[in-house]
Amino acid sequence: MFRDRESGTCLPDPVYSELLISPESAIRHTQVSVSVTNNPTAEWIAGQVTDAFPWNEAPCHLIRDRDGAFGPAFTRRIRAMGIRDRHTAPRSPWQNGHVERLIGSIRRESLDHLVVFGEAHLRDVLKAYALYYNKVRPHLSLDKDAPDFRPAQKIGRIAAIPILGGLHHQYVRL
After folding, report:
1. Which residues in the chain land under pLDDT 70?
2. Most buried one in 12, 86, 157, 173, CB count within 10 A?
3. Where are any strands of DSSP class E within 14-138?
């Protein structure tokens, strides 16, 4: 887990982000959900799993680190949902590469360029980034398409729509 040094706010880390990426969404590079809290508890994490994956859409497997926040409440919840969990080896972030890559993208493409003014602002920034990541941002492994497919626009004038306060732009035809 990593925390904002100034406010102590927990940012989505490899553990929590892995919870929020389903196997099907990993193929299309879709980020399912983003949440923020100052004090992650097993109950809070269990609630995030339930919110991200309805009971009939839960993944079969979950890779997570050995964070102490994963307590009995979390374990009971994922077992009830039919999810099997596996721990990564201690101090081995490379074993969870998809999530580490996502965390790096979030930092490089948004948080490194913004001053975050608290938990509510961080939540808004992460939601805006999630929309950008899923609907607009080109991914090389998807032939420069976004995870949420969008048809090519061939007619009209090109306009730039600012995202994250102008940090990124979506180019569309009007």
Report:
1. 1-33, 55
2. 12
3. 61-64, 84-87
